[in-house]
Amino acid sequence: MQNFSKFVNDITSGFTPVIGGDYKQEDYAYIDLSENNPELLRLEVASSEAFSVFISEFLKNKNAKAAYGGYNELRTLYNRSELFNNIQANRNIHIGLDIWVPAFSEIISPLEGKIHSFKDNDNFGDYGPTLILEHSNEGRKFFTLYGHLSRKSLSDLSVGQTVKAGEKIAELGDFDENGDYAPHLHFQVIEDLKGNTGDFPGVIKKEDLDNYLKNCPDPNLLLKI
């Protein structure tokens, strides 16, 4: 069977939006939120408000409307949450793609599919409202996950409900409902959900990295930002 990363890359031929509105490919700027970014040293990362200001300043300096990045990125900002920083494991490697746009921005499905599951993961530092879509291409099933949504996004949904490519499926939540983050979308591509519903790890520990990278390839292979 074809390597999953190559399979995901071949599904789309060019820029494929997941944020609704008039965002163009040139409106996006890559942002480094890894432990290697010295700008983060002066930032109070535990404050979602401070982080929102940081993102706004970054976009202004880059003359951009949206920031993106974060796949396979080692981040220290998760140290603020016991969900990631605990005795069992220090989970600090991000394996989704984050897209930083204003709260309540429209989220659209990049592909046709159907609703697999949804859930409000309301722990501090968690996804908050989360939606998972199921897709099939050339007979091969896979999933996309959308985290940090508004609670309103989960109302009136039903498992199995079909969605079209480019159809609005949700909107971003603000910090008071998205796990206490500056508004952004966590987008992840997953081959095997391993029995999960409405949730799937998006931040993992180093020991599990190889397996997760195979199961969750770079989402930008699909979006091509």
Automatic annotation (TrEMBL):
Superkingdom to which the source organism belongs: Bacteria
**Pfam annotation, one family:** Peptidase_M23
User: Which UniProt keyword terms apply here?
Assistant: Signal
Query: Would the keyword Nucleotide-binding turn up in this protein's UniProt record?
Result: no
**M23ase beta-sheet core domain residues:** 93-191
Q: Extract the InterPro entries matched here.
A: Cell_wall_metabolism_enzyme, Dup_hybrid_motif, M23ase_b-sheet_dom
The molecular function terms in GO held by this entry are: metalloendopeptidase activity
This one is known as Peptidoglycan DD-metalloendopeptidase family protein
